[in-house]
Amino acid sequence: MRADLILKNAAQILTCRGPAPRSGEAQRDASPIANATVASFEGSIVFVGASRDADAAVTPTPHATVIDAGGGTVLPGFVDAHTHVVFAGDRREELRRRLAGATYQEIAASGGGIVSTVRDTRQAKDDDLARQTRVRLDEMLRCGTTTCEAKSGYGLTVDSELKQLRVIRRLDREQPIDLVPTFLGAHEVPLEYRNRRDQYVDLVVNEMIPAVARERLAEWCDVFCETGAFTPEESIRILRAGQAAGLKSRLHADELGLSGGSAVAVHVGARSADHLVFVDRDHAEAMARAQIVATLLPAAAFFLKLGRFAPARMLVGTGVPVAIATDVNPGGGFSPSMPFAIALACFAMDMTLDEALVAATLNAAFALDRHDRIGSLEAGKQMDAVVLDGGPVELLRVGAPAIRMVIKSGKVAWSSG
Ligand SMILES: [Zn+2]
Fold first, then answer.
1. What is the 69 CA–ligand 1 centroid distance (Å)?
2. The domains spanning 2-77+376-415 and 78-367 adopt the same CATH topology
3. Number of C-beta neighbours around residue 238 at 10 A
4. CATH homologous superfamily of 78-367
5. Ligand 1 centroid vs 224 CA: distance in angstroms?
6. What's the 154 CA to ligand 1 centre distance in angstroms?
7. Dist. CA 63 → ligand 1 center (Å)
8. What pLDDT score was predicted for residue 239?
């Protein structure tokens, strides 16, 4: 078969092949092929297998790009299944104050916190919001991310939520990373609705969701189900309204306490419940029965200094498919790096390296309902790949430049050299 991109001589290719999702024992296997080659034509993989079989199977087109992986490792492009990458403003100064002992309440009282991001995002022009977000997406690409979920949720008015989602659609076209849009109008009750929160839920259900659906601006509806944010009852109402408008369900669940989010996920048939720092075995078993993905965000627990991480071992042992994501956001998601999330998955949540790699690729693709196209290196799937110098353990050496090249849809999207 013809190929216009050939990545040859990899010491190993970690295919992370399906069927998706992988759970329990099956998550431990990243399905490696030693001494391997992968080739694609017009962005789709046509061959993955032993290098000795590649010459017979693959005919390069006249202008084919042939890359010698030089004894390195090739793995699927990372799928970052939970981000708040679209926002305006800068809260780095807040981080410095927090590290010096300021509490979240003190920072909020001086005009910081999520309220400041909402203010800046509401005020930002589309171009400015796109420009600020593009900088972060470029960083993520260099860290190996080839698809990322992106949420609204810093507008909290009909117009500014739509503005965020339109910027996601525009950036999806303008830069290499594929963006998967999620409506998160129920991120926080905005200041002006604090004394009449029911009316804000009404606004989300009766105006925002229909407007988002009309313009087909999102695939997913998300809710921050947590004490102090949205109750399980409110979350169910919002997610059901999303489903009725054609938006699939995912949600922020049990991050700061066992507050009902995982139960809501089971109740509404969500594809993914995210964070789950406090989920217990009973709720995990219900998630496993429904094959709801646990999307874990260890970098969030790390930067927020929660003092604990999601019980990944219990979740894997219970048979819940586990994915991991960065949670890029202005207040506590300071790392664009999936390799950093993988390192935390291994060293703070006791996952094996292969489990973490499957979590960052195939299972994350399943969490976004894109597993038929991405998340593994298999014939017929999109050619999204990361090339490492050396073995996959290099990814755990946080800060070391392990990634040599990022391939998106069969083209070199970033290269260290
Ligand atoms: Zn989040």
1. 36
2. no
3. 28
4. Metal-dependent hydrolases (3.20.20.140)
5. 8
6. 11
7. 43
8. 98
Rg for the chain (alpha carbons), in Å? 21
pTM for this predicted structure: 0.97
* CATH 2.30.40.10 is held by the domain 2-77+376-415: yes
Is 393 in a helix, a strand, or coil? helix
Q: In angstroms, what is the span from residue 117 Cα to ligand 1's centroid?
A: 14
**Domain spans of the chain, in order of start:** 2-77+376-415, 78-367
Quote helix, strand, coil % in the chain, to nearest 5: 40, 25, 35
Measure 55 CA to ligand 1 centroid, in angstroms.
46
- 83 alpha carbon – ligand 1 mean position (Å): 6
Q: How far is ligand 1, taken at its centre, from the CA of residue 252, in Å?
A: 6
Output the pLDDT for position 92. 86
302-319 burial, b at 16+ Cβ within 10 Å, e below that, comes to: bbbebeebbbbeebbebb
pLDDT score at 400: 93
* CA-based nearest residue to 320, from 328, 312, 310: 312
CA 81 – CA 367 distance, rounded (Å): 7
Mean pLDDT by 10 residues, the chain (417 residues): 97 97 97 98 98 95 95 97 97 89 82 90 97 98 98 98 98 98 96 94 98 98 95 98 98 95 98 98 98 97 94 98 97 94 98 98 98 98 97 96 96 95
Q: SS3 for 373?
A: coil
